[in-house]
Write a structure and sequence with these properties.
15 helices; 5-stranded mixed sheet; Glutaredoxin; 9% strand; alpha/beta; two-stranded antiparallel ribbon
């Protein structure tokens, strides 16, 4: 018995020693990641990234004081540039200090971790890169309003595996005033979050920006569906996901119709007609019995009213459909840090914030009542679960109207004369 206890004690000591060595190694990597020696820093960053969320977490622990100080003051120092640079490279997300989220850029690797941890994948598709300042406008808003929200970031970290992929570069425009002042912006682009199971089946697709509250609801529902179908056969999984999308479709449409009635919005179809949403499935797999076919017969024709819906109508609809937009204190502080130094007065900041909330309400409403329903329609009319990359091409081409076939993303037209050499194009 004494020998057994001694052996057990040795094993415990060896385990603790190995754990201490591992912790020490991580701490050394964290220290090296912010070294002024670029070669040493890049090597450490690469090793930390390979360790996933654990590598990012050790950076946060090591530099918690610097993160807290920057969050308080917004002051950019040489040290902070090295710390934030390391955080962003390990996380593969710009402004990772505000979210603490680790992102895969390899979907296969993300799915492997999802399978090992029984989690769904949240796969973001965007213009530009999430780890760069000038990704498309939606993805920049995600970083400020969604990922910086501690309730959302905490839920994502504990329940999802995160992945992003760039569809194409985000077009940028610079306005040079000729006196040293410049304004630089991206000028078009859209993003979409896909909720996938570990095998890549699309559970849901969330187009564009949503309010934090609405986004969290869909994340929670996606996680519940992923948990519920665990252990099902492939066919049962697909059918269960269709049922979820059908129920979600009905809830969105019911909420929209109630909001239209509540706000007394008049819907009028143009006399010339429009290309309405498809009115019936093109095809239904033979495997589905009659009651399951009925389940899939959900379609929406709201598009025929859109041409005559005024901006004031959308504002009224948003007031009922997406009321009381709330941003976390952390997101508000994030915004304040970004606009610090622009000379805004307190009144101007309040005005900007009110306009931002109005924009979020409008986009949440339009994305849900038009785009989201269309995505559900397309997904539920597929005989089998579509490949996410192929489906995403359709979303960008037919929903966002930025197909890969147009290299100019609708920003250049051959029938417009600009009175410039080469018509203003530089290749």
């Amino acid at each position: 018995m004494v020998l057994t206890r001694s052996v057990a004690a040795v094993f415990i000591l060896l385990f603790l020693y190995a754990s201490a060595l591992a912790t020490s190694d991580l701490e050394q990597l964290a220290a090296g990641a912010t070294s002024p020696d670029r070669e040493r820093a890049e090597a450490a960053i690469s090793e930390l990234r390979a360790k996933g969320q654990a590598g990012l977490d050790v950076l946060f622990a090591k530099y918690s004081q610097q993160i807290a100080e920057f969050s308080r003051s917004g002051e950019t120092t040489e040290e902070w540039l090295r710390v934030s640079g390391a955080l962003d490279k390990v996380a593969m997300q710009k402004d990772a200090y505000a979210s603490g989220l680790y992102w895969f850029t390899d979907l296969v690797a993300a799915q492997k971790l999802a399978a090992a941890t029984d989690r769904p994948v949240l796969s973001l598709r965007l213009l530009g890169n999430l780890n760069e300042e000038f990704s498309c406008a939606n993805s920049r808003l995600f970083r400020a309003l969604l990922y910086a929200d501690p309730k959302l970031s905490g839920f994502l970290k504990n329940n999802y595996v995160l992945h992003w992929s760039s569809v194409r570069p985000a077009p940028r425009i610079t306005i040079d005033f000729g006196d040293g002042r410049k304004i630089e912006r991206t000028v078009t682009g859209n993003s979409i979050h896909y909720i996938l199971d570990e095998d890549g089946r699309i559970i849901d697709g969330l187009p564009g920006i949503y309010s934090p509250a609405a986004f969290l609801i869909y994340l929670e529902q996606g996680k519940q569906v992923n948990d519920a179908i665990d252990g099902y056969s492939a066919d049962r999984k697909s059918l269960a996901i269709r049922r979820y999308r059908g129920l979600s479709f009905d809830r969105i449409r019911e909420r929209r119709e109630n909001a239209i009635k509540q706000q007394d919005i008049k819907l009028t179809e143009p006399e010339t007609g429009t290309e309405a949403f498809r009115a019936a499935p093109i095809a239904v797999a033979k495997m589905f019995v009659t009651d399951e076919i009925t389940l899939l017969r959900r379609y929406d024709d709201f598009a025929r009213f859109e041409p005559l819906l005024q901006f004031s109508d959308w504002k009224k609809l948003a007031a009922a459909y997406s009321p009381n937009i709330r941003l976390s204190n952390e997101s508000l502080e994030f915004i304040r840090r970004q606009v610090r130094g622009t000379g805004r007065t307190t009144a101007e900041f309040s005005s900007m914030l009110a306009r931002l909330k109005e924009y979020i309400a409008l986009d949440t409403t339009r994305n849900d009542v038009v785009y989201h329903l269309k995505i559900y329609e397309w997904l539920n009319y597929e005989a089998t679960s579509p490949d996410v990359d192929r489906f995403n091409q359709r979303v960008y081409a037919d929903l966002f109207k930025t197909p890969n076939s147009d290299p100019w993303l609708g920003l250049y037209s051959t029938d417009v004369y600009a009175a410039l050499d080469g018509n203003g194009i530089t290749r």
